[in-house]
Amino acid sequence: MTTMTVETTAPARRAPIMSRALALRFGSILGSATSFYLVVSVVPMYGGGDQAAGLSTGALMLTTVLGELATPRLIARYGLRPILAVGLVLLGAPLLALPLSASVGWIVAVCLVRGLGFAFTVVAGGALTAALIPADRRGEGLAVVGLVSGIPSMAAMPLGVWLSGRIGYTPVLVIGGLAALAALVTLPGLPGTTAVADKSEDPRGMVAGLRSTSLRRPALYFSATTMAGGVLVTFLPLAITGKAAGTVALALLAQPAASTAARWLSGRYGDRKGMRGLLVPSLVAAAAGMALLSLTTIPAAAVIGALIFGAGFGVVQNISLTMMYGSVSAAEYGTVAAVWNLAYDAGWGLGAVGFGFLVPLTGDPVAFTLTAALMLAALSPALRLRRLLMS
Question: Which residue would you say has higher pLDDT here, 259 or 134?
Fold first, then answer.
């Protein structure tokens, strides 16, 4: 395993980020991200009720997590492109069947299948993306990828909520399904395996990856914000109703917009000056934004809170992923993608399910406040990472 190189100074002449293969990869990112974000807040609304909403998001994340545990070995056996193709089909096709029923059982079944497809898509796609980015521009390159994936999250997530109230759920679900399936046309131009996959080097599986402190600590740091992210997109539409309901679309636009901008800016900053100074402030900002969401009777607080949370979330995203890729050999990119996405999706699902059972007991304001307080528990791994970067 290579040593962490996050703090090194970039050379004067750096390799270009963009290539034909990376441009094609952007196409598959746009398709899969649109499929995910367009319906991520719509499906919980389609089911109705707090517990049903939590179960739909929790089911999606459950099989996502299970799929991520197995995907590195599947990639090693079958290659990236076949796993990515299967993932796109499983992510998109079930949405075409979801309008057949609005029962909780059917919604959960569809979400379980889509979760597996999402796992294949993000892990295989993430490993491929990392292999296509020059190592000395990893932070900025991953931030550019974040910009591309941020476009659907900025546009599709609020658009899905807005459209479902005007043209109905079925057209929105069908569009989401077709978006993932359309991304299949980009795959023939992508490498079938990672350009760096060395058959002589057996990459670590998930168990070994989770045991590694260089992967586990950034993942724990990141998972605190993803937990809150699952709460925000699942329950903010349910917490703000009536005349202020239009605020939800604006808040759901503010969060990914801030995340995308912050991810790019932190990537540029980190490649040049290091990530150390961003570790703690980004986490505190995300927690502060979540705390503001507790003011559910003040529409402006929801938008400002989503904006501040999104900025902190975007920086944490970039820091954690850049550090993890910088701490492994290239043959282990699949493991990094799986561990990072496991932290993302496990936190997302657990946050949604836990909040769904908590909010009937406490009400939305207290539940949002408790979520913000829980996020601060990640200050401990953040401080350890900061000391590691200083050493």
Answer: 259
pLDDT exceeds 90 at position 21: no
Query: With contact defined as beta carbons under 8 Å apart, do 60 and 349 qualify?
Result: yes
* Domains in the chain: ranges and CATH: 20-195+208-390 (1.20.1250.20)
Give the DSSP letter string of 192-261.
SS-TT--TTS----HHHHHH-HHHHHHHHHHHHHHHHHHHHHHHHHHHS-GGGGHHHHHHHHHHHHHHHH
**pLDDT tens-digit readout, 338-357:** 888 888 878 887 888 888 88
Asked if residues 334 and 127 have their Cβ atoms less than 8 Å apart, the reply is yes
Which two tokens mark 352? Answer: 């949604």
Helix, strand, coil share (%) of the chain residues, nearest 5: 85, 0, 15
Can you give the pTM of this predicted structure? 0.72
**Does residue 375 contact residue 286 with C-beta atoms inside 8 Å?**
yes
